[in-house]
# Entry
Amino acid sequence: MERTEAYNKLVELKNIDLRKLADKYGITVFKGDKKNKGWAGQVIERYLGLPLNSSQSPNFGSWELKTISLKRLKDNSLTIKETMAITMIDPVNVSNTEFEKSHLLLKMRKILILSRIWESKLEPSSIVFGVHTFDIDNKEIYEQVKKDYELVRNTILNYGFESLTGKMGVFIQPRTKGIGHGSISRAFYARVPFLKKIILGND
# Structure
């Protein structure tokens, strides 16, 4: 499926409650007290015609599909709830690969992001806020993402993979990803201020 086709289809979900679609498609949101953290993304995949319980993430070839959450502030305005995972960090691959040939750049060249409104931990409803396209063609953004990548790469080369910390990076940060606080896996994440520029148009 081409990104334009997916975009046009996802735009039709604006102001639609994803919880109701989850019920329609048989997507489990809660199993007992345990929440299926990826339920919203699974709803979107099913809506676009992908099979349920796919063992692999959706692969659209030339573009990436992401889902992020927004939350309301006390003044009822919306802000980005959390960072967005982009791709895992393979220390060997990152060490040996310049940014221009990196997996990070490949993942960020063309992205389609669906934003949803997070109400509470109980997820009583989740209204689709909008659909956003991102292409890393802005020179300022490109150069900063490149600097963030090179910081991670140089840290791995000079100090080791374990020296990576979420405090690094302006737009993109390296953070632990996985089950439990003892996880040693790390991934590239888009920081909240960066997502605000993309989703909310905030500088």
User: Anything to note?
Assistant: The chain has one domain: 3-200. Strands lie at 30-31, 34-35, 64-72, 78-80, 84-88, 110-117, 128-135, 172-176, 186-190. The first helix runs from residue 3 to 11. The radius of gyration is 17 Å.
